[in-house]
């Protein structure tokens, strides 16, 4: 076994390559690192996913509908190649958007707090897509982010020294505020207390089997629309003042954590391969464009950065995709489409080229003087081909649904099915969630639309998308009340 591993480390291409790709059942990890460190990182992520499944009584061999991509870079400057506005102290981030869903972190570390925290959010939205209150969303992520995987030991729910310090030194929020407020409702200076108390309450509930059952009951009841504060009193049998005192006592003592063994989880199959030299020039540039840029910023970036670097790699697939994407979205649409057409001529089942060309036709329909309906239909056909070539891409399904908005019966059953599939694949993406909810509203499926909107409306980090979800939710709640009023005797 050791001989095989040594041979693999010295394999041609892997030893010299700057960027490697490790693919496991649930993750795709890209790194400027050694094969060994990349493999170990991917393996620990797999174990962390298995820990989450184990704690929820899920099938340990289960896999998500879409693997999460994680990019490991040398330092903060590497992170800022994709997100230039990041502060110098940031060690990683998570980005769910219409360009892609991915995380970035600094390499040569254990899967750190940021990645584990954000993956816990990602996991919760994938498998428990309910309108949980903000304290539970953040407390859940804070609790599991303290998982430590070291040798054969897997320790879950270790103490968080930063949050413990806040609990000792910061003013405690009343538990009614903690349980019911969104982070946008908090005053300046209350955020540290909110995160610390959310972590402490989650730790208190998860650390004891009986209390863990109470948390399960709470999640089910609140997920079904129960009041966050009243439900907590009901499941714990304590009023909120008594519960707050109990949590303060618990947090001030010696915190328990779960110790598992790595041997309890099947070792994942991980394949590592070298990326072409074009990745050195364009992997992060392509990611930066997909993560979102303004039109002006993107045009300058394509002209000064992407074009000259793509020219160094003629015929290279990554170079062609990055160039075509940049041209279509930011610079010269016709030039980008020409690249995509060449790729499709060479491979009629190139799902990425078909998708990007289809999206180009949809988003630019009518802007060049062409017929909007014709270009929408053409884009829809290209996206249908992309879906046939590679099912399971939420972006393909989302833009296909947009192409159908010209139809008089929008949303048809077929379009609703496409949006539902996109939502199942990527419930983390705000645009997908809002578009699906609005399509349901057109069908007067008010209750289902409410379920779709609630997690985003309650999201502590939802920003403008969360505000849009809350405004849409007001419309939905108004219609639900109107329908119930009509039905009342």
TrEMBL record:
InterPro entries: TPR-like_helical_dom_sf. Gene3D superfamilies: Tetratricopeptide repeat domain. It comes from the Bacteria. This is DUF1570 domain-containing protein. It comes from Caulobacter mirabilis.
